[in-house]
């Protein structure tokens, strides 16, 4: 696979993640001003609870992309179609379980969140049914979009998901303004979810020439193969549910008034990390193809280079978010939300940055079929996170969840490096210090100096003027980018960035 293909796929995933994130970013400024804090907090809680359905995805979307790339590489068309058909059957079963679970959760909602205002309880139950059920029904349909990932056609699901998310955002704002009803908002959200799933199916029927999906192709062997491959991802998804999916729920138990504040802080951090993850996921088919050829040294090189670029992207996107968080939040949803989310931002950005450092290894291990070697770390991260989060949130409020995420992130990265990597035989790194170097160098050169200057300015000088604070933060942001460009990127990196910019943005061939 050429570098340009990888870049195009990364760009498509970036557009997809950007469109989804854009809808996430455009909704809060409107909804936070249209709805009361209690109503908006309840809506955010509904979205969080509905997201539990994604756990029953079992990671099949990621696995299908890998299997399609793998069996296309081997030329085994019959096995490929059996895998896809079996995945559809599995997700149909998952959808049934999800529908029952959402119904039970909606029934018990008032008992679970006793501090939820009484006038919102019935509407919350109905909205949860609409949103959660639509996600459940869409589960088997997402398989068809996953096939395009294995075909290196990331642009197809990117366009479908991106456009429907933007449409959903626009419609939700309109109905919120006209009805102030979270039930109607839930209906709109659900309808666009199902539409996106059907669109992926129709695209598959039209564009995936030569593929067959039938109940006759479902086999026990293929089901077992998919389930085995999904095991690590499912456990990771459970870990992610505890790490990022239970945070709002835990706060709802202990500190309901802070639900909207925390959810808004998490939205901004998730936006940045979602974009970075969209880019990173493009290496899964690459790892699958290399793994099929049994080339551990090349996978080791891929891990080091992917980790290096991932850390650079994380720094380039997260430092501005940290430095300009107060300004961004003030203009985004107003001064009240900005004042109540400032400290949460700092903890969440640090926590998610640490967690994402281990993502390249996890992604490549899945891509090359070493998923069984990485089961333990997400479980331990989840347990550590949950224990710390519940303990601290019951004492200090919403910040406890963010601190728990940070502690769990350190546990996860440590396990990946010291326990999982030495056992992953398909990934060979001659000198593991190279992996440490690609992480530590940009942190030492850029992150530590810039963040130190920022906190000295913020807490020692304590300038209250928003314009001056914004100017200082903007200068520090530019310095961080300049540091990455000058001292972290190589000459080859800079040439590749400029070449890609000319090809993908300016639409012209780079000059030799």
From TrEMBL:
Assigned keywords, A-Z: Cell membrane, Membrane, Transmembrane, Transmembrane helix
Residues passing through the membrane, by range: 42-64, 84-106, 126-149, 156-176, 182-202, 230-254, 260-288, 309-335, 347-367, 374-392, 398-419, 439-460, 466-485
Coiled coil start-end: none
Cell compartment(s), UniProt: Cell membrane
Any one of the GO CC terms: plasma membrane
Membrane topology term: Multi-pass membrane protein
Full protein name: Membrane protein involved in the export of O-antigen and teichoic acid
């Amino acid at each position: 696979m050429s570098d340009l293909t990888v870049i195009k796929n990364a760009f498509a995933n970036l557009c997809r993640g950007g469109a989804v994130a854009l809808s996430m970013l455009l909704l809060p400024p409107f909804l936070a001003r249209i709805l009361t804090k209690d109503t908006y907090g309840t809506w955010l809680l509904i979205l969080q609870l509905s997201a539990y359905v994604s756990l029953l995805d079992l990671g099949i979307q990621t696995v299908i992309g890998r299997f399609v790339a793998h069996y296309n590489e081997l030329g085994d068309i019959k096995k490929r179609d059996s895998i896809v058909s079996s995945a559809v059957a599995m997700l149909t079963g998952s959808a049934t379980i999800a529908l029952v679970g959402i119904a039970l959760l909606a029934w018990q909602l008032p008992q679970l969140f006793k501090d939820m205002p009484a006038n919102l309880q019935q509407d919350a139950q109905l909205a949860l049914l609409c949103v959660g059920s639509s996600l459940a029904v869409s589960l088997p349909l997402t398989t068809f979009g996953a096939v395009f990932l294995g075909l290196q056609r990331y642009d197809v699901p990117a366009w479908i998901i991106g456009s429907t998310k933007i449409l959903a955002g626009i419609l939700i704002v309109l109905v919120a303004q006209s009805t102030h009803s979270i039930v109607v908002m839930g209906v709109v959200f659900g309808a666009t979810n199902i539409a996106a799933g059907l669109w992926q199916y129709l695209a598959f029927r039209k564009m995936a020439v030569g593929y067959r999906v039938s109940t006759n192709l479902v086999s026990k062997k293929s089901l077992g193969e998919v389930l085995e491959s999904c095991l690590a991802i499912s456990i990771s998804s459970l870990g992610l549910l505890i790490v990022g999916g239970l945070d709002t729920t835990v706060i709802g138990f202990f500190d309901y008034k802070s639900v909207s504040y925390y959810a808004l802080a998490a939205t901004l951090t998730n936006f940045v990390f979602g974009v970075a993850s969209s880019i990173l996921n493009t290496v899964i088919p690459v790892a699958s193809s290399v793994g099929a050829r049994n080339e551990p040294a090349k996978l080791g090189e891929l891990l080091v280079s992917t980790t290096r670029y991932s850390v650079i992207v994380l720094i380039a996107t997260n430092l501005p978010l940290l430095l300009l968080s107060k300004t961004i939040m003030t203009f985004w949803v107003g001064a009240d939300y900005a004042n109540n989310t400032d400290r949460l931002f700092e903890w969440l950005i640090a926590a998610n940055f640490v967690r994402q450092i281990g993502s390249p290894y996890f992604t490549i291990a899945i891509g090359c079929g070493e998923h069984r070697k990485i089961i333990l770390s997400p479980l331990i991260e989840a347990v550590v996170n949950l224990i710390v989060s519940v303990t601290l949130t019951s004492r200090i409020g919403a910040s406890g969840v963010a601190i728990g995420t940070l502690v769990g992130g350190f546990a996860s990265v440590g396990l990946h490096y010291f326990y999982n990597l030495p056992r992953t035989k398909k990934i060979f790194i001659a000198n593991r210090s190279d992996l440490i170097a690609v992480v530590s160098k940009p942190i030492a050169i850029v992150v530590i100096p810039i963040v130190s200057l920022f906190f000295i300015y913020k807490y020692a000088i304590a300038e209250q003027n928003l314009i001056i604070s914004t100017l200082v933060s903007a200068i520090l942001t530019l310095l961080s980018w300049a540091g990455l460009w000058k001292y972290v990127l190589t000459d080859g990196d800079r040439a590749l960035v400029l070449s890609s910019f000319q090809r993908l943005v300016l639409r012209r061939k780079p000059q030799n």
